[in-house]
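Aim 2, interim progress: modelling of the S-adenosylmethionine-bound target.
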Amino acid sequence: MAPSPLQLQVPASASALHGAHMNGGEGDASYAKNSTPQRRVQQRLAPLVEAAVADVCRDAASVPRSIGIADLGCSSGPNTLFLVSAAVDAVRRRCAAAGATCPELHVFLNDLPDNDFNAVFRQLPEFLRREQSRRELDAGNVLVFGAPGSFFGRLFPAGSLHLVCSSFSLHWFSLVPRELAHGELVNRGNICAGRTSSPAVIDAYTRQFSRDLTLFLESRAVEVVAGGWVLVSLKRRSARDPCSEGCAMYDHPNSILNDMASRGLLEAAKLDSYNIPAYEPCAEEVRGIVDAEGSFKIVGMESYETAASVGTAAVTACDPAGFARTMRAVHEPMLARHFGAGINMDEFMSTAEGHFGRLINEGTYRGALVHVLSLRRKCKF
Ligand SMILES: C[S@@+](CC[C@H](N)C(=O)[O-])C[C@H]1O[C@@H](n2cnc3c(N)ncnc32)[C@H](O)[C@@H]1O
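Predicted structure of the complex, ligand included:
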């Protein structure tokens, strides 16, 4: 067979394996309509975006000829453009203050190929119109690109990015740990590294997190310029031992699914083989992996707990139905892939509402535990 004249490099896709993308569209069950808690986490990253841009554009002489900005795990909906918009605005203000011409801005939006990129692209004309109409600042040129693929591998040209943001996405894995996916380990009663998981299961999750975060860092190390920034938020637990945790976010889907199985609404054996490709690391683990990989310096790391409420900034409430909708928007694609017709989403929703209602009444509902990290690409000497 004649050799192909063109070798295309297709970024490795994790979504085909585990379906860890969010619900698309703009309907009641969509991520677009149910992602306010995640927006609050993005708001925590916004000042770090400002600081990173101030560093990249320190003075007129240091402003690069073009600036590459990427959001990794951008999803679809109002959160998709939040951080890149903050970055574009910050560059413009910074250039105006420094008396520099605003450079061309290259904005890359990445997510898994099954993400609703059609919805993302439909948002772009409005975004670009808004950017172009801001005549009070030197507009520069903003060019936006979609980058479907897994961030656990190369996505962008070498040395093309000055700022990478990734909010609430890096706790997802590239795949379910092999031992669990192949049934060598059974994680009965848990859907991830949970309170009653065996040490072997916890080890499998810990190792997968380490492998994946290392891959993420190695890939970004090639793509981010020396002195460039990677800003990340991800779920966390407060101690290495999952049994010592007061509350982990994945306890919620775990309780809901086990409750459904106990009432015969879900096949128990099918639930035993359901493990989600996600993990909540403690600060010590994250630091250890970043330091061992060696390409980035941890400039800041904050670990905090989000407010236990949903809704807009103006109207916030502990709303069991809102929590249930957010849970559905995140978990439905994975549940559908594993259980198929074996799961009734109406039953899932009413069980979830009951679960959150109980926790709220008892006063035991807690917000998510989150790490926020700012990493700077070390200079290569
Ligand atoms: C909870 S959402 C967060 C979305 C958005 N950043 C926000 O703050 O609202 C996590 C996103 O990460 C994406 N994701 C998960 N694993 C990924 C991977 N390996 N590569 C790219 N995106 C991934 C999911 O598809 C999903 O859209």
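The CA atoms of residues 261 and 271 lie 8 Å apart. The chain has eleven helices and nine strands.
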